[in-house]
Known about the structure:
- There is one protein chain.
- The protein is an alpha/beta fold.
- The chain has a domain of about 190 residues: Rossmann fold (3-Layer(aba) Sandwich).
- The strands form 3 sheets. Strands 3-2-1-7-8-9-10 form a 7-stranded parallel beta sheet, sandwiched between helices. Strands 5-4-6 form a 3-stranded antiparallel beta sheet.
- About 40% of the residues are buried.
Amino acid sequence: MKKIIVFGGGTGLSVLLSGLKQFPVDVTTVITVSDNGSSTGVLKKELDIPAVGDVGKVLISMANVDEDFLRLLRYRFSKDGSLYNHPVRNIMLAALIDMKGSLSEATSYMCKLLNVKGTVLPLTEEKVELVGKNGRQEFFGQVAVSQNVKNIRKLNYDHSIHICETVIEKIREADLIVFSPGSLYTSILPHLISPEVLKALTRASAPILYVCNIVTQPGETDGYSVSDHLRVLNSYLKKRKIDIVLVNNSPPAPEIAEHYLKTEGKEPVPLDREELKNYDVEVIEDALLTVENGAIRHNSLKTAFQIFSFLMRQET
């Protein structure tokens, strides 16, 4: 069975994984733990633990249990009080960290509980914060970084972090390395600012595939095209480069695009084919867009199918 390692965080990663679990591939997921917003940020501060929010989302997307159990894990307390806005999955992970001693062990236990096929790994066991720098000016925390990308020249963590050894092993063993869709500066690049991860990626023999975002991220990638995303990723990869980019070639309906721009400040990411010719990259195009409950998403099955098809072509 072919081995895929997927790096990411947030909703884009979860959507991709919900499709990949339908195919006969061995999937390892590596998740950033530097989030400091919403429920995750509160638990991180009060309990002095790594960010658990994205880990919880990934576990649900890869779970193979009945829908009632998943609804329980997704349930978010809505009444005023100390539990307000906390989803059950975050509370469970926080409790398991206390019981098991680490986020990795907590995640491993949840994988068994949810019958997850594959491996789910936090990037690090440590409580970390993302820091954006511009000379003497610093933007501390993922939320501040996301809101000030145009003023940031360099991304770092607030201290040197140790990467889980299994992450490095899985990079070495992979047949394909995937960067998921999601917030470019706060979900994908946090993996690449780790010297250990960057070194492992540089030495890896597997090609790197990037699933490009369908819409821009306000404050982070306003006005970005597909090639702009590649330019940023390649600058952080240094010696390695993106080998394949999977892109959506079906724009949203005009009324949906207009609604997104007015309500969320998001625009479709332009597929600039001519500019992409300047990159040594294989471009895979498909109509990957779907709309779920009014939200633009990647079609999880079609996106996963394109990744699986690429893997199968590598055998011929």
